[in-house]
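Note to self: user wants both folds in one dump. Writing first protein now.
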Amino acid sequence: MASDLDFSPPEVPEPTFLEDLLRYGLFLGAVFQLICVLAIIVPIPKSYEAEAEPSEPRSAEVTRKPKTTVPSVNKRPKKETKKKR
């Protein structure tokens, strides 16, 4: 009776290229997600140099001028009256 049992491993087909690509892509995606979650949870202390820079006065080149809005030629003016039904 013991000789009737077959303990050989089952025949499993060799994975195709697309299956390997999917497996490694999912693995890399999981690693990326873990890195993103750890970046949110674990705070990174800021260096003292980064804190000193904002206190320095800005030069004239760095300051920005407020932008003026120029009406576009392609836009139609809004109608002031409502349509009659």
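First done. Writing the second protein, which came from a different request thread.
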Amino acid sequence: MVKFLSLTTSKRLADRKIARFERNISKKGSENTKKGYAYPVGPIVLGFFIFVVVGSSLFQIIRTASSRGML
């Protein structure tokens, strides 16, 4: 009799999982897609990154030009 009750509970849990899976599958194709372009980083971080990259490249160009005697 205990085995019969555990099978019923197992069947109920399995049915619940199947129902949840089917809801997720039906949602998958109808997700709203964002229109527009969102950056993965904020504008301040992006500005800082550009500042560092451009600044370091300019610093390297100036250092190279001054060490070679301005060829």
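Dump finished. Worth passing along: The mean pLDDT is 79.
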